[in-house]
Hints:
Blueprint: H1 23-27, H2 30-59, H3 64-89, H4 94-113, H5 118-147, H6 152-181, H7 185-203
Helix pairs in contact: 2-3, 2-5, 2-6, 2-7, 3-4, 3-5, 4-5, 4-7
Amino acid sequence: SSPEGNDPGEKDEFQGPNTEVSLREAIKQKSFLFLNVAETVRMMAVTAVVVHLMPYLSSLGFQRSTGGVVAAALPIVSILGRFGFGWLGDRIDKRVALGATFLIMGAGLILFSFVRDLWMIVLFLLLFSPGFGGSMVLRGAILQEYFGRDLFGRMLGVIMGSAAVGGIVGPTLAGFVFDITGNYQYVWFAFSGVIILSSFLILRIKTGSDAL
């Protein structure tokens, strides 16, 4: 239920202007943990792709200029997801919309693992970029709708801090695996798997006392 739309008799420990739940209590909720883990995994995958995209495409025989265009296109194409999934999140369950962004990101990474032609790169961009763009918009929307506004800034700070750790681990792990195996495909497979699994964590997010 929306923080603006609670019934007078509805008890929701996270929502309403007079909530007394502390930050420590709030971040112990399973639902917050699910959202936090999903966001950390998302950032691991996104930063790994951004950092290693050009070396990966070069290893497949694509010219460096092609890699540069694809790298520049990633944030631009993500705008489609920011608007599209933002609009969708206002009309359906935000958990479903956010879960869908993770699924198409995972599908994009699977396709990225098998990139051999330019059309496959274009299809990867049309899946992965809107997925991570939409997830950025819906993250904050879900945090407010399911956990209220009183602790919004501090809880968002916790999530972004965890995501920053994921943003460090992702590229480092991808580079380590490539150095060991000489192949990025294992990395993209692994990230696609954990992102798809994270979509199921998102669907388990609940609100108020049900989030325990």
